[in-house]
Specification:
Length: 263
């Protein structure tokens, strides 16, 4: 038998200490259920039962608190409880209770995240899928949830992203902007057919002066390479401007006009 020496309130429950020096954290429910009081004699069997109950009660409360901020996947809750040093048998019981109360459901979690991603992020379906996979959601559940992210939603979201990218790279050639937009859409996880449609529908300003953009880029390069001999300077400028997406005809025109200014 053990004799309870003290019971002290703590942040995560109550710290029970016996006269033999045994300590354990227990929940308030266990304290009341078993009428544990200072000076009471308790058997080793009861202490073990209380310890298991405490692990469940405390773990369950921690899980509820963790869920109070936002929806979580089953894997997230499991990993969290492991970090809180809750025993595996109690984690299983906690997970079962959360599911029974409809507080934990990967299908609901996945569908909720897809809807949120459509409204608030610039991720395409593949980007959303990768996020859910990291959260431990199984492939079938993810695919079901992604049915919400249909072609129309992808186009609307992709259109916002392409317009943003057009503004960001407005000082670059049309070819370079197209390449950067295509790359960004791919990185964000949009489907290939959606990317192709978005690229086809890019709306460039009809009054946009492509040659004017080239001149701005060319003048920077000219100043950078002005100490090189003529042939080397032309070679460097031509190579750089071509890599930026400008045509050889416009590049040659720029170099010829620049040389005429120096005569």
């Amino acid at each position: 038998m053990e004799v309870i020496q003290s019971i002290k309130k703590e942040k995560t429950g109550y710290l029970l200490t016996t006269k033999s020096g045994l300590t354990m954290t227990i929940s308030e429910d266990s304290l009341v259920r078993h009428r544990l009081l200072k000076g009471s004699e308790v058997s080793e069997e009861l202490l073990n039962r209380v310890k298991e109950e405490a692990s469940f009660d405390i773990g369950y409360q921690k899980a509820l608190n963790y869920l109070s901020y936002q929806l979580r996947s089953e894997q997230e809750i499991t990993d969290y409880l492991k970090k809180q040093e809750i025993s595996f048998p109690q984690i299983v019981k906690i997970m079962d209770k959360l599911k029974e109360l409809s507080l934990l459901n990967d299908q609901v979690f996945a569908e909720s995240y897809v809807r949120t991603a459509i409204r608030t992020t610039d991720k395409g379906p593949q980007g959303v899928k990768e996020f859910l996979m990291k959260k431990g959601v199984d492939g079938g559940t993810i695919d079901d949830a992604l049915s919400l992210f249909d072609h129309t939603h992808q186009l609307v979201l992709g259109k916002r992203l392409t317009e943003k990218m057009l503004r960001k790279y407005q000082q670059k050639s049309q070819k370079e902007r197209v390449n950067k937009i295509r790359q960004q859409l791919f990185i964000k996880g949009f489907h290939a057919d959606v990317i192709s449609q978005l690229i086809d529908e890019l709306d460039f300003d009809e009054e946009e002066d492509e040659y004017g953009l080239l001149v701005k880029q060319g003048d920077k390069l000219w100043r950078r390479h002005e100490r090189l001999d003529t042939r080397k300077r032309h070679q460097k400028i031509t190579q750089s401007l071509y890599q930026k997406g400008f045509s050889f005809d416009d590049i040659n025109r720029y170099i010829e006009e620049k040389e005429m200014e120096l005569e």
